[in-house]
Amino acid sequence: MKKRSFLFFVIISTFLLILSACGTSSSKDATSTEGEESSEKNSLRIVTNAAYAPFEYFDGDKIVGFDVDLINALAEETGYEVEIEHVGWDPIFVEIESNRADLSIGAITINDERKQTFDFSHPYFLSTNKILVPEDSAIQSGEELKGHIVAVQTGTTGSEAVEKLLGKNHKDIKKFEDNNIAIQELLQGGAAAVVADNTVVEEYVKNNSDQKLKVVEDSSSFEQEFYGFMFPKGSKLKAEFDQALNTLYDNGTYVEIYEKWFGVEPNLETLKEQQ
Amino acid sequence: MTFRWDIIIEYLPYLLQGTLLTIGLSLGSIILGSVLGLFIGLGRIISNKILSSLFYCYITIFRGTPLLVQIFLIHFGVVPLFAGETNAVIAGVIALSLNAAAYIAEIFRAGIQSIDRGQMEGARSLGMTHSQAMRYIILPQAFKRMVPPLGNEFIVLLKDSSLLSVIAAPELMYWGRAMGGQYFKVWEPYLASAFIYLVLTITLSSLLNLLERRLKTV
């Protein structure tokens, strides 16, 4: 009797697995036709993870940041009205994949794995991963991370970069939900280093000088990364926004926004080379 | 959107490895939590008001704050204080046991108090000491009544161990999240790990059913 009820559960759960897979694929078909209609409408739904200063973060109840200013300028250029909504990091990918949102901003790195599922705009920002270590640490390069415990944020390019150095899902890699907890792990002695985007670690060191941390740069271990705006696969918006981005590059608007947020001039040539 | 079985197969070794740790963490916490829970439950019913209120405080604190917060506090605060560095597995067992102990204590208390006063009086009049009466007469009867709520608690504990993924304890949910993080998929990792949790809880509850039947007197 017991045995049979166990089998029953296994069958039911397999069923659920299959059902959910079908359910999502059919719902995608339904929404993709809606998506075509929505390209005629003038208002775009933009999703983001507003917890990544200075790219996008909450100032009171308003989402502000570099990405926000840039997308507003692009919207003006293309004639769309935009509505930015904070949904969190992982949900961004679900919202876009299921066509519930028109595009996503969020310091999203363009890579081949993501390109399988999504479309990206031309690169609009150059970033690299850097290593955060205690001031007295001997670690000076990515190679020297071997043999040490490294904390990263799950699903980020920092995590990928460390996996390339140490091996995929290596036991010395600790993956956390966000960079804050990863840095906390470092502070409490649970990890020797944190690898994350340069803007994150540099901001952290700038704001927490009492924690005695330093940033190590290693341009040979960590490749240049480019951020792009993310669209559902096959979105017609991509071409429009790519064109508008080039206009902003040429008329100086992009430079103006970049200097407002980062205080330095952007490297436009590197960005344009990537197109 | 297609359901990618290939990434589940790719991550299966990790998921199974994580499942083993989940089982280990849960078993360890069930045992530690039950011992501690029995102790606290007994402490809760002693007649000394000051002492028993201490145990009551323990229950209030651990039952009244979120387990997630307790995990963070123990991982980043308590364990480094003693060990000098963090250890997710140790912090995990401690947090789960301490939390479960608060609930188990109340189960023990309710079980013991549900036994008719006459049983204790009868045992005492046969010449047993209080602790003998507790051990041979009250607790065996109480335990039978405690099995279903204890089973509930164990199943909750097993599922709550998934919260340990936030401190990077490489258990089942951790690998599920790692898989989602790599491929930016949600259905595959979450359904796969949900399925494994389901298998674990079904196994646990059938073991508990077996125990319940064994204890059945009539």
From TrEMBL, chain A:
<keyword id="KW-0732">Signal</keyword>
<protein>
    <submittedName>
        <fullName>Basic amino acid ABC transporter substrate-binding protein</fullName>
    </submittedName>
</protein>
<dbReference type="GO" id="GO:0015276">
    <property type="term" value="F:ligand-gated monoatomic ion channel activity"/>
</dbReference>
<feature type="domain" description="Solute-binding protein family 3/N-terminal">
    <location>
        <begin position="43"/>
        <end position="265"/>
    </location>
</feature>
<dbReference type="Pfam" id="PF00497">
    <property type="entry name" value="SBP_bac_3"/>
</dbReference>
<keyword id="KW-0564">Palmitate</keyword>
<feature type="signal peptide">
    <location>
        <begin position="1"/>
        <end position="27"/>
    </location>
</feature>
<dbReference type="InterPro" id="IPR001638">
    <property type="entry name" value="Solute-binding_3/MltF_N"/>
</dbReference>
<dbReference type="InterPro" id="IPR001320">
    <property type="entry name" value="Iontro_rcpt_C"/>
</dbReference>
<feature type="domain" description="Ionotropic glutamate receptor C-terminal">
    <location>
        <begin position="43"/>
        <end position="264"/>
    </location>
</feature>
<keyword id="KW-0449">Lipoprotein</keyword>
<dbReference type="GO" id="GO:0016020">
    <property type="term" value="C:membrane"/>
</dbReference>
TrEMBL record, chain B:
<keyword id="KW-0813">Transport</keyword>
<keyword id="KW-1133">Transmembrane helix</keyword>
<keyword id="KW-0472">Membrane</keyword>
<dbReference type="GO" id="GO:0043190">
    <property type="term" value="C:ATP-binding cassette (ABC) transporter complex"/>
</dbReference>
<dbReference type="InterPro" id="IPR043429">
    <property type="entry name" value="ArtM/GltK/GlnP/TcyL/YhdX-like"/>
</dbReference>
<feature type="transmembrane region" description="Helical">
    <location>
        <begin position="190"/>
        <end position="211"/>
    </location>
</feature>
<protein>
    <submittedName>
        <fullName>Amino acid ABC transporter permease</fullName>
    </submittedName>
</protein>
<feature type="transmembrane region" description="Helical">
    <location>
        <begin position="54"/>
        <end position="76"/>
    </location>
</feature>
<dbReference type="GO" id="GO:0006865">
    <property type="term" value="P:amino acid transport"/>
</dbReference>
<keyword id="KW-1003">Cell membrane</keyword>
<dbReference type="InterPro" id="IPR035906">
    <property type="entry name" value="MetI-like_sf"/>
</dbReference>
<dbReference type="Pfam" id="PF00528">
    <property type="entry name" value="BPD_transp_1"/>
</dbReference>
<dbReference type="InterPro" id="IPR010065">
    <property type="entry name" value="AA_ABC_transptr_permease_3TM"/>
</dbReference>
<feature type="domain" description="ABC transmembrane type-1">
    <location>
        <begin position="19"/>
        <end position="208"/>
    </location>
</feature>
<feature type="transmembrane region" description="Helical">
    <location>
        <begin position="154"/>
        <end position="175"/>
    </location>
</feature>
<dbReference type="InterPro" id="IPR000515">
    <property type="entry name" value="MetI-like"/>
</dbReference>
<comment type="similarity">
    <text>Belongs to the binding-protein-dependent transport system permease family. HisMQ subfamily.</text>
</comment>
<keyword id="KW-0029">Amino-acid transport</keyword>
<feature type="transmembrane region" description="Helical">
    <location>
        <begin position="88"/>
        <end position="108"/>
    </location>
</feature>
<dbReference type="GO" id="GO:0022857">
    <property type="term" value="F:transmembrane transporter activity"/>
</dbReference>
<keyword id="KW-0812">Transmembrane</keyword>
<feature type="transmembrane region" description="Helical">
    <location>
        <begin position="20"/>
        <end position="42"/>
    </location>
</feature>
